[in-house]
Amino acid sequence: MVLPGLAERAVGNDYWRMVAGTAGTATGRPGGRVEEEPLYLRPRVDPGLASLLRDAPFLHALCDALGSPLNVLLPEAVAGNAERFRSVYRRHHLAGRVYFAHKANRSSALVRRLAACDTAGVGVDVASLGELRHALGCGFTADRVMATGPKDEEFLWLAARVGATVNLDSAGELERLARLVRTYGLGRVDVLARLSEFESDGGHAGPGTRLLSRRSRFGTPVARAGELWEALERHADAVRLVGLAYHLDTTGLEEKARALERCVLLMDECRARGLSPRAVDIGGGFGTGYLADAGEWERWTTALSEAVLGARPPLTWRGHGYGLRNEGGTVRGTAALYPAHRPVAGPGYLDALLSRPAPALDRPPATLLLEHLNDLYIEPGRALVDQCGLSLARVLDVRPTGEGPPRHLVRLGMNAGDVSLEEHGVLVDPVLLPRAGADAPSGDGPVGVHLVGNLCLEADLITRRLVYLPRLPRAGDLLAFVNTAGYAMDFHAHRAQRQPLARTVAVTREGGGWRWCPDEDYWPLTDPQGVPS
């Protein structure tokens, strides 16, 4: 079944207008309360996923065969994203590498497809022993692997043994690594030194200037960098400094530009001590735009404040405020929500960061990197798997709530761990895929529903938000949660109450249709059926 009006760049502007009529404006009501109208948060859908969603019979057949929930991945999309990041490097004449932050998705198909990319420009960032073993087994050579995150002895030993680059968090971690190298007669290990708390030294930004940087439990504070340089000199027989790194938990361009500039200057200090760093690793945090329409995001967040104040009916299950609260008629708190509509994200965000003049030297970071002959490393996770997959759930049961305005509970064949958009503060509507040949239930227009999971827990909500669908679903329909490959489809998956974990499949376009294989059976040198290409 083809969804009517399903656009190439966004799911169904025409489709949604046909069934909704409005975009969710509010109208007045006696007593100051706002009348409720549908508030949509329609997903942004690029051509690959849009084409897949139009083939509803194929997706239904997959779920019939493999069960609900089901994750569907497009490996070719991750290769396209990597190339878009690499194009930003070329635009700024920079060398370096794009490291995929493996923790964003545990898929074999995605990692194998990246391993088949340009070996000089694409690597993988692993944050555990298991991820390191997985990356090596998927085809990455150790020179394209960076080990980050908390590291136990086994993780450090294998990274050193195979020759991966180790991103060090502290002088203590460096000591442990050097001891392993000497104890087991391993070769010198290439390392990066991760720094943090750039606000602790504002000397390069001018007198009285405080560098803005969030505190982090990862990395060595800049104020203690001297201790790290001494440790690197002391263990020069075991490790080789190849660069400096940071990872800031912020979307602020100014903070990241300050940190990048500071790293460039600190690398000059390292060279003056006889060390030879050549790269700056700026981590991830490039963001993803989940929604097609900025106006819908603005309307919904405004309406959330109105609902918290009691000026309109609740938008959420039991009045959940996403961090906002009503204190004496004033909204207090901060909404714990991901900025789901981001006009600048992914490769565009990297381009903006490299083009923005850094504060101390008043030159763009790209210019600073070139002037100092530095390479650039990045570690995108969510942004590199943008538009690479979706999660499907079968509708199991639909029933009215029996209270307040007409509402329905829609129980799905998945739980909150299977599609953890809410866990990351991402709000986006699912796409309804009716079963072909089924009679549509009576009732016109959009309907507000609460999506609940299959666990015997009151807290098992797929989304706390009231979701509007074009019509009331029925048992057997599918809901497709779009763009879940980044942290949402398997990051929090579990086997609570012995519910099945979602299977994952990789799909590729062939002629006018789709072919699929289990995620673990996908290899870039074959088609999805295992036939050499």
Termini distance? 30 Å
Tally of contiguous helical segments: 13
Shape: globular
What oligomeric state do the depicted chains represent? single chain
What are the low-pLDDT stretches, counting only 5+ consecutive residues below 50? 1-35, 200-208, 528-532
Helix content: 25-40%
Number of strands: 20
Main attributes?
533 residues, alpha/beta, 27% helix, 19% strand, globular, disordered N terminus, disordered C terminus, Y4yA family PLP-dependent enzyme, PLP-binding_barrel, pyridoxal phosphate, Y4yA-like, Ala_racemase/Decarboxylase_C
Description:
By secondary structure, the chain is of the alpha/beta class. The protein has helices at 13-20, 47-54, 56-66, 75-91, 108-115, 129-137, 153-162, 171-183, 225-234, 253-272, 294-308, 347-355, 365-371, and strands spanning 70-73, 96-101, 122-126, 145-147, 165-168, 189-196, 220-221, 239-245, 279-281, 324-327, 330-333, 375-378, 389-400, 408-412, 431-433, 447-452, 467-469, 478-482, 503-510, 513-518. The strands form three sheets. Strands 1, 13, 14, 15, 16, 17, 18, 19 and 20 form a nine-stranded mixed sheet that branches. Strands 2-3-4-5-6-8-9-12 form an eight-stranded parallel barrel, surrounded by seven helices. α6 links the parallel β3 (122-126) and β4 (145-147). It is globular, with a radius of gyration of 25 Å. It starts with 12 loop residues before the first helix and ends in a 15-residue tail after the last strand.
